[in-house]
Amino acid sequence: MTATAASSWPAGVVGVDVQSIAERTPHQAVVVPLILVGAWIVNVLLRWGIRRVGLRMIASADRLGEFIPDEVRFGGSSSRLQARTETVTAIARSVASIVVVIVAAALILAELGASLPAILASAGVVGVALGFGAQTLVRDMLAGFFIVVEDRYGVGDIVDCGAPVQGVVERVTLRSTRVRDVNGTVWHIANGEVLSVGNKSQSWSRAVVDVVVVPETDVELAVSVLAQVGEALRSDETWSDRITGDVEVLGVLLIDPTGITLRALCDTEPAAQFEVEREFRLRVLGAFDANGITLAHAVIPGAAAR
């Protein structure tokens, strides 16, 4: 294309001066490849740096909260830590790559003669439109990002997000969480809607067993039997790997017309508390029967009238 032909184009078409492009072609042949190479180098460096910082960021988040014992803060969580690191760094690297591509494209268009302020203004308008149209999506994704970073819960955890959403986490994405309850129902929750959540299987769990005996019971004997059952359970090779602490019998928890409530508890491996509780109750039934200790019966309202 000659300079005369180029000058015949309407001025300012899509913000590009065609004559200027024709005149600067040798310069562009050098600058545009340099922009592309520079963008590639910057992208590689950013992705490498993000990957290196990822593990340190996750480890720092794990150190927050002094209530987490040192011996369990990182114990047995290497695979989960690795998964969280991969998730967070993949997101950050994708965002970095998108930013690099956008900046490189803007620089190339500016080198070709396009108006850089016009490009930035158009990008701003598009960003505002997307922001208004996807507020809920952005909120859910930000919430999902911090759920992963702070390790509030992960796949396999037993969580309580408020009735009726209670069960095992099957999937966690940036936008939503999938939970399956004890009845097999699958619940899909937008991460932005999870205002509070109880994790019943993070780091360690606790088995709590309450036993209600009749008011006439020898409480000291009942407490002694509970302690013996707990010690036997703790010493059993089948259960010793799931119970991480001594069984503690707290004694009398509650006294009411239905009977006397006794409580025993012990720390367990994550998510092992329910099976430990079931086994403890089964052994208590046999031990109480052997020692002549009677369990209280629940009072059904209106039963006496019938």
Give the arrangement of secondary structure elements:
Elements: H1 3-7, H2 18-23, H3 25-63, H4 70-73, H5 78-111, H6 116-133, H7 135-150, E1 158-160, E2 166-172, E3 176-180, E4 186-190, E5 198-199, E6 205-213, H8 219-235, H9 237-240, E7 248-256, E8 259-268, H10 273-290
**Structural class category:** alpha+beta
Helix fraction, binned, reads 40-55%
Total of helices: 10
Distance between the termini: 104 Å
List keywords for this structure.
10 helices, 306 residues, Alpha-Beta Plaits, disordered C terminus, alpha+beta, 3 domains, SH3 type barrels, single chain
Question: If you had to describe this structure to a student in words, what would you say it looks like?
Answer:
The chain folds into three domains: 3-133, no CATH class; 153-199, SH3 type barrels (Roll), CATH 2.30.30; 205-290, Alpha-Beta Plaits, CATH 3.30.70.100. The radius of gyration is 32 Å and the shape is elongated. It has helices at residues 3-7, 18-23, 25-63, 70-73, 78-111, 116-133, 135-150, 219-235, 237-240, 273-290, and strands at 158-160, 166-172, 176-180, 186-190, 198-199, 205-213, 248-256, 259-268. It contains ten helices and eight strands. 17% of the residues are buried. The protein is of the alpha+beta class and 306 residues long. The N and C termini lie far apart (104 Å). The strands form two sheets. Strands 4-3-2-1-5 form a five-stranded antiparallel β-sheet. The model is unreliable at 1-16, 64-76 and 299-306 (pLDDT under 50).
